[in-house]
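User: tokens in, sequence out, please.
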């Protein structure tokens, strides 16, 4: 982005398209690694004058101005693509959602790639805090009311997109960062969403996985990275094959995948004052996947432990408890309201267990946070379940046959 361009200039130019004039701009936060900033702006109609009272409106400016970086830098490429994908979501997909699935509205946007290797991506969004004044706290648990509201929002979001993803142009989906950049560079302006929603799936976390495989002090080295007898793959790799959507179709989850948010946590949502309504934001990692992959992070990072287990002293191994089942059944029942889609409970549970193993693999290689005692205890139990292993292996084999 040319140095002469400031957030004020970008905001003013975008607002002018809609007949609005910038009155003030306040930076709320900086983005990861100095890639940009989020600002709250106040605007008024351009035709306001002495006779016409000012109608001040609040908006959010998300401005991304990353530095040029070599294309083989996976973290940089992931971020560059993710901001463009988020822009696609807000401009093309969000307007399709019913009012019951609250997200910010995109007023105006730009996506420019400059000759010096930099780029400018910007959006002006409606200010969610006007209707949802309570912000989720960073790495903090929600109240039980907020947790149920978040769960209901996710079931509605997943339910809405489940029958609609078949209409998506699979060739427009964005592949894992290093794979994508080899064919189309870092310009995803003509693309849609991630082929694989989220940012923790194995294809984009091979470096971290390799570190886990060499970490002799980690309990999870052997169970997650050792080769499974007769399969020539580790359990993590088999799980990844099971969960990975395919551009050509035919993955084990083909009939169950939907659009997932990809980064579900308390700090990515606002709630109403009573906590009964939520609105999610930060759709940088929206893409195809199983809805339970969103739930795995939500349950670990944002749901109170007391909603998952009756006793805070979690045993070393743990099967599904009543609290966890209650939450899952609530989500599952609402998800099935889509109509023609079928999702047997037993299949849903197997998908859930697989998502937990995959999420633990990422945490074990990256760093643990949240309800980690619960997560580790659940995965220890799942990995010992021969029926789950058989379900997983046979589904992957059949899909590749």
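Assistant: Sequence out:
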């Amino acid at each position: 982005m040319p140095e002469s361009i400031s957030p004020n200039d970008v905001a003013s130019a975008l607002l002018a398209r809609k007949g609005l004039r910038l009155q003030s701009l306040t930076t709320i936060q900086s983005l990861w690694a100095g890639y940009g900033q989020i600002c709250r702006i106040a605007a008024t109609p351009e035709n306001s004058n002495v006779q016409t009272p000012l109608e001040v409106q609040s908006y959010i400016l998300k401005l991304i101005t990353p530095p040029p970086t070599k294309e083989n830098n996976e973290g940089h490429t992931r971020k560059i693509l993710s901001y463009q994908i988020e822009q696609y979501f807000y401009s093309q997909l969000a307007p399709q959602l019913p009012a019951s699935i609250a997200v910010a509205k995109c007023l105006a946007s730009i996506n420019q790639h400059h000759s010096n290797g930099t780029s400018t991506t910007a959006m002006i969004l409606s200010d969610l805090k006007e209707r949802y004044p309570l912000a989720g706290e960073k790495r903090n648990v929600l109240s039980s009311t907020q947790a149920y509201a978040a769960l209901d929002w996710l079931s509605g979001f997943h339910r809405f997109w489940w029958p609609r993803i078949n209409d998506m142009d699979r060739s427009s989906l964005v592949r894992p960062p290093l794979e994508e950049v080899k064919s189309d560079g870092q310009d995803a302006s003509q693309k849609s969403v991630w082929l694989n929603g989220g940012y923790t799936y194995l294809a984009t976390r091979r470096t971290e996985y390799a570190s886990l495989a060499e970490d002799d002090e980690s309990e999870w080295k052997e169970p997650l990275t050792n080769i499974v007898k007769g399969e020539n793959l580790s359990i993590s790799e088999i799980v990844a094959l099971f969960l990975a959507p395919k551009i050509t179709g035919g993955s084990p989850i083909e009939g169950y995948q939907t659009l997932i948010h990809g980064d579900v946590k308390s700090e990515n949502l606002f709630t109403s004052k009573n906590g009964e309504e939520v609105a999610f934001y930060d759709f940088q990692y929206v893409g195809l996947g199983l809805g339970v992959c969103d739930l795995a992070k939500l349950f670990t990072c944002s749901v109170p432990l007391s909603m998952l287990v009756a006793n805070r002293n979690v045993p070393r191994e743990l099967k599904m408890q009543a609290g966890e089942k209650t939450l899952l059944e609530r989500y599952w029942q609402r998800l099935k309201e889509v109509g023609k889609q079928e999702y047997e409970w037993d299949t849903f549970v197997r998908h859930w267990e697989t998502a937990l193993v995959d999420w633990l693999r990422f945490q074990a290689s990256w760093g643990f946070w949240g309800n980690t005692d619960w997560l580790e205890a659940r995965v220890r139990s799942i990995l010992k379940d021969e029926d789950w292993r058989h379900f997983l292996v046979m589904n992957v084999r059949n899909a590749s046959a």
